[in-house]
Here is the input.
Amino acid sequence: MATQRKLMTAEEFSCLPDDGMQHELVRGEVTTLPPANPWHGDAASEIGFVLQAFIRQHKLGHTYAAESGFWIDCDSDTVRAPDFAFLSFERLPGRSPERWPEGLVPDLVVEVMSPSESAREVREKMEQWIRAGVRLGIAAHPRTRSLDLYRPAAEVQRLGPEALLDGGDVLPGFSCRVADLLPE
Here is the structure.
């Protein structure tokens, strides 16, 4: 006799106690993420530092670290936690809420590819962010010092180390060489 596993709702997920681990809810199933390796942590820190400095200097909005989960799909109860996120003051004019309301998604997310993730998994995660309403998704590849850019209704764009990352309409005026975001 097969047993059916009960799926968790995003509301139930938001009430879980903090156990010191990072979790995501993917289509109703809780997944536990292992701690980041040094390359991953270094890349996430460097990218976050550069983006956060620009965002604060230009008073564009709020920034969030990897522990911040966003409820990005209510039909399949999915809560994701990117390595870095930015919400413009247009989307969130006041202070950050204690819990994310359904449908409030970042303008920009950064996901750093981990050795434990396949390229397919990262692509699916980034496409899920874009479907949820993220305007710019950045998948960082520390080993190759490259970035994949995801935007609504556009092909994925690969930037090598010498290319310039342009913030477009998400981060107007931002420009940075990829190699400066992903140092050797």
